[in-house]
From TrEMBL:
Domain Metallo-beta-lactamase stretches: 96-183
GO terms, molecular function: transferase activity
Protein name per Swiss-Prot or TrEMBL: Beta-lactamase domain protein
Taxonomy, superkingdom: Bacteria
Length: 348
């Protein structure tokens, strides 16, 4: 093993973080948060709604189809390997709308929003969980459908990192890299934050970098590489990975992840420690437990989440069917299947 390999592995190992946060974040509680999944890997029009979850209608729109007598057919929502969520935060009568990630294709997110009757013109800020293309591809569609001049977009400074996949025995495949210059020319106001930041009058927390404290969440396999200016190196940590956190009054924290590259247990524990809140109310988003490299992490992840006893777990995107099955078994009252067009309502 060369020195570079060893240093990368050491970086992925846990580091001790004990006690309360040195600089705790005072997160203002909200009365309600509604998280609507605009893009996810699946769309199931037959999933049932309940008092916490509202599903998209089976006929979310009409499109031209000449083989039918009236020339139209009913369509559902787009499902693609990506993630995007609309976050509506309410305090009293004041509602603020944020967009968390934008899916993989330029038109997938905006198409689903249109079919759901959601006006993306109401979005007051964008947050990117990290720089991977399956979370940022819809920025082009957003800019094309609404004026984004001055629209703030919160990112980690490493979101611009060049990355590639280099599986053994195969030619490396470059991953699309975000361009700050292009985004600013579209009108986005890019805000880089490595440390935690507060939005919406202190009621929405963007975690910034996550403390890696578990002994089983080791990050991406060796095929995931980043350009460091001199060469390609294993990039296990995806340090730009960050989560969105809201505290629902009298309920606890709602944690929204994109892929959870930092490890979902690391993320949840980091949010609890950072805010001083002792309860995880809901966990929504991608957990990155799919594939042979991550399936060994499923059991300890599910065990740790079971100990936290969240009221709602909606794992989607890159979580994988094995993890979904394990979570559904371990947390039958909390786990609900995710799907494009689903709204999760968490209220005080």
């Amino acid at each position: 093993m060369c020195d570079d390999d060893a240093s990368g592995l050491r970086a992925a190992f846990p580091r001790p973080v004990a006690g309360v946060a040195f600089d705790p974040v005072s997160l203002v509680p909200v009365d309600e948060v509604v998280v609507t999944t605009l893009v996810d890997n699946t769309f199931d029009a037959l999933l049932a709604s309940d008092d916490r979850v509202r599903r998209a209608p089976i006929g979310a729109g009409l499109v031209e189809a000449p083989q039918f007598e009236d020339g139209l057919t009913t369509v559902g929502l787009r499902a693609e390997h990506g993630f995007s969520a609309l976050v509506q935060v309410r305090r009293g009568d004041a509602v603020t709308t944020l967009l968390f990630d934008t899916g993989v294709s330029p038109d997938g997110m905006v198409s689903n929003a249109e079919r759901l009757g959601i006006d993306l013109g109401d979005v007051q800020g964008v947050v990117l969980s990290h720089g991977h293309f399956d979370h940022a591809g819809g920025l082009a569609g957003l800019a094309g459908r609404r004026g984004v001049r001055g629209l703030p977009m919160t990112v980690h400074p490493l979101v611009w990192t060049r990355r590639r996949l280099a599986p053994p025995g195969l030619d490396p495949s470059p991953l699309p890299t975000l361009s700050r210059r292009a985004l600013e020319s579209e009108g986005f106001e890019v805000i880089e934050r490595r440390s935690p930041s507060l939005l919406v009058d202190g009621s929405v927390l963007i975690t910034g970098e996550i403390d890696r404290t578990t002994d089983f969440e080791r990050g991406m396999p060796r095929a995931h590489q980043a350009w460091d200016g001199a060469g390609w190196r294993h990039d296990p940590l995806v340090l730009d990975d960050q989560a969105l956190v809201v505290q629902v009054r009298d309920r606890g924290l709602v944690v929204l992840t994109g892929c959870g590259h930092a490890g979902v247990v690391n993320i949840a524990r980091h949010a609890l420690r950072l805010t001083g809140v002792d309860r995880l109310h809901a966990l929504i988003g991608g957990l990155h437990l799919s594939g042979t490299a991550f399936e060994p992490v499923i059991a300890p992840t599910v065990s740790a989440l079971t100990d936290m006893a969240p009221d709602l777990v909606a794992s989607g995107h890159c979580s994988g069917w094995r993890a979904q099955q394990a979570l559904a078994t371990a947390l039958p009252e909390a786990w609900v299947p995710s799907s494009s067009g689903t709204s999760f309502r968490l209220a005080a």
